[in-house]
Amino acid sequence: MLLRHTTKEIKPREALLINPAKTCQPIGAMYAALGIHACLPHSHGSQGCCAYHRSTLSRHYKEPILAGTSSFTEGSSVFGGQANLLEAINNIFTVYDPEIVAVHTTCLSETIGDDLPQIISKARDEGKIPKGKYIIHANTPSYVGSHVTGFANMCKSMVTYLAEKSGGKKEQVNIIPGFTEPADMREIKRLAGALGVKTVIFPDTSDVLDAPQTGKHVFYPAGGVTVSELRSTGDSIGTIALGMTASASAAKALDAKFKVPCEILNLPIGLRATDAFVDALRKMGSVAVPDVVTEERGRLLDIITDMHQYFYGKKVALFGDPDQMVSLAGFLTDLDMKVVYVLTGTADGKFAERIREITKETAPQAKVAANADLFTLHQWIKNEKVDLLLGNTYGKYIARDEDIPFIRFGFPILDRIGHSYFPSVGYYGGMLLLQKILNALMDRQDRDCPEHQFELVM
Amino acid sequence: MSNPLKINPQELKEEIVKDYSAKVARKRSKQIVLSQAKEKGEVPEIMANVRTIPGIITQRGCTYAGCKGVVLGPTRDILNITHGPVGCGYYSWLTRRNQTLPDSDDDANFMTYCFTTDMQENEIVFGGEKKLKKAVQEAYDLFKPKAIGIFSTCPVGLIGDDVHAVAKEMKEKLGINVFGFSCEGYKGVSQSAGHHIANNQLFKHVIGLDDRVSPAKYKINLLGEYNIGGDAFEIEELLKECGIELISTFSGNSTYGRFANSHTADLNTVMCYRSINYVADMMHKKYGIPWIKVNFTGAAATAKSLQKIAAYFGDQKLIARVDRVVKEKLKAVEQAQAEIKARCQGKTAMLFVGGSRAHHYQELFREIGMKVVAAGYEFAHRDDYEGRRVLPSIKVDADSRNIEELHVEKDPDKFKPRVTEAGQKQLAEQGLNFAEYDGLIPEMEAGTLIIDDITHHETEKMIEAYKPDVFCAGIKEKYIIQKMGIPCKQLHSYDYGGPYAGFQGAVNFYREIDRMVNTRIWKFIKSPWQLSPQLIGKLGDS
Questions:
Q1: Residue B219: helix, strand or coil by DSSP?
Q2: Catalytic (active site) residue B407
Q3: Which of A76, A250, A306, A451 could form a disulfide with A156 if both were Cys (CB 3.0 to 4.6 A apart)?
Q4: Looking at domain B63-185, which CATH architecture does it have?
Q5: Which is the CATH superfamily of the domain at B219-341+389-429?
Q6: pLDDT tens digits for B202-235?
Q7: Partner residue opposite A51 with nearest CB, options B62, B114, B153
Q8: Distance (Å, rounded) from C-alpha B9 to C-alpha B460?
Q9: Three-state SS at B2
Q10: What ipTM does this complex have?
Q11: What pairs with residue A62 in β-bridges?
């Protein structure tokens, strides 16, 4: 057994986290920063943080992940990291010539209390930031929240540093797509485009982390929201924030600062969450939904109605980030699946309540936990088995030990491709997700059923 | 491919560093040297094991990674708790591909688990020792391990948590071995500091605890082999065939008990000198076990290493048995070599990785006729480049000074000299020298560039200039290099392949490189309409 020490008996734990279902803030900030065009993310801390984040993102995307580090030594840890960051800024603009540098902190620089705005302003005073170039920063202490918090904090910094109000209104809607894949961001843009709504999507990692093989390495790939687009977000008609945890804070900051009204929606994963997104977008953008989009919706619904028997009553365990879990639990519940276990590593006071509201009819006994770990999830499963498990790559150890069909969903996915290329948001993303679920369940039926019940047509 | 002979490496070096500020260029110039070892017989000095320049994109990681990730990561039955915020434990969870094979389903294996105190703001402010103690207790209650290791992350040192005091207290309370590592990420200048810290603590807390002596005749330890992709399994099998007993491996496929017993071996063989030489030296001083450098990467190197071990024991029966095994194994290897060499001869490689692999893997490339046109380490010291003879001349700087140097003396009871002075002299005459490593530079062809802690910028420039057929590095470099149209072989994770050690491993590697440098896929980068953009006819022409 891979996880041979995991027992059925559940003992209370207060101090030891075993097999986390979250990681730390800075990686989320680094990922968000990669969604700004010509941006170099910079990690203000020991170089190991940057190495770990770059490695994990490289494994997940199988793409170049370039970022700088302040390379703290013991001396900088004692005397402060100002000298390191000033030197880094100078080197970054000299050697890598980005349009913008997005600095995030680490547990190290937060613990010693480095004052980032002060250091950045010193860099400006000393002429280390070339004219027309930008530095933004987000505080991302690893001992608060999770990778999702870090993502949210960097998104918020994009608007607090860069958004402006020119006086006029721009006929555009801001969309904050949450901690999703480049494919998801691309799909959200496509849907908005189909509706004829002009949008600024930030961050936007499409065409950055799914860049084509051309035989040439482009340090700053074509994609990403531009600094001038970010500056214009203060003039937009409104903001749609997708996901309470990852996107709300940036949307609220824009509202507070520039009175850009915002709608905070669930991530558009599944039929009804996508409906809510499309509906909100058509209202905010004052457009009619074209037939092509309604037809797409119909195709997703058609799969659901045709294949309902395979979903109905199946028990599912999910783990991942709060925004994904809320939408996914909703979608699977709409299919009449029983979402019996939902777990996130991120601390989120409202998580359990929100999930229970979704599952109260189909799975009233559902176990739900925030700020929890995969050891707990595995123990739940040992106590009552499920028909399907959805989660990031680490779930495969549980799936193999317990012999459960497993679908990779979330971050990080280190052992398969596809997540960055094929969306799970929107109607089309919903179709792809259903195809995965059906394949997993039906492959299992084909594998396990008695020979005399082996079906040609299913 | 461009002809490497046409490149003037000195000019190229100047061209590369001119994009830096004057200050950075000065420093980097000392970390880029031209090998003239073979033609002039002198080994140039290289600057190494110095700070990475802030903002300059590097391959390097941190001390925690070197300690918890590299050295202690591969041991299956020590329960490793990372004391700190969640990230450090998370990123070092199963990502290094150290394979392990417990003797039975009932044996402990914690390598698939990640244990962390998941420090929160409250602990940063008020201290984390209380939580750490509780975490150790919970780990013990749930898993009943033989030993628990505690690994410090950056904030731990800053807030002053005393992991060693907690370890001591819990050791007494629980009656199992508990030990701490002050491997905060900011210590030292790279992973290398973490190796040293790991070596020290293993030496202080584990090695020498179990004095039972195996009745086997030829007992050795294998140091600095981490069983990436099953390398240690290959070597274990080979040693078994030769009749050599492996007491312990530091630390591939290892157990706590094997470490504790390792001082009963009669020879230490060192693979990755960088990460484990400290243990080798300390075991020599305390227990009298001499060490020799070996290399099981490459068929010839593997043969030579086995023969060195046999020569050390000096028993004709063993020497004959080893020769027989080597001869037998080399047959299959030579067949594969001949086949693959025909397709790989003259192709070029660059290796920028680690602290020993950039040296060891040159063997494999040479065996299939490929040329290494440039190489360098990620976290090595000058002795890894220039050989141990430079040790006395290495200046100890502030970053090295903060890594504890253990003072080791002969153990009054357990010290047992394995070879007499006369015996040592005799072995030296046969070419078997103890505690010797010549480093990477002497093996590099004249005119090749050796670059320490290569930066992203230098990587791109080197590839543009030489257009090597394959570039060896790690995961962070992999997709950048491949986007340049050059295949990248990861020599940390082996791209999820391997094993590459020993004889079969060598063949596996030849085949892998053959696949990479001879595949047709790189020819598809340009579409037909990019290759011939002119339309001959016009739409609508009839």
A1: strand
A2: no
A3: A250
A4: 3-Layer(aba) Sandwich (3.40)
A5: Nitrogenase molybdenum iron protein domain (3.40.50.1980)
A6: 999 999 999 999 999 999 999 999 999 999 999 9
A7: B62
A8: 15
A9: coil
A10: 0.98
A11: none
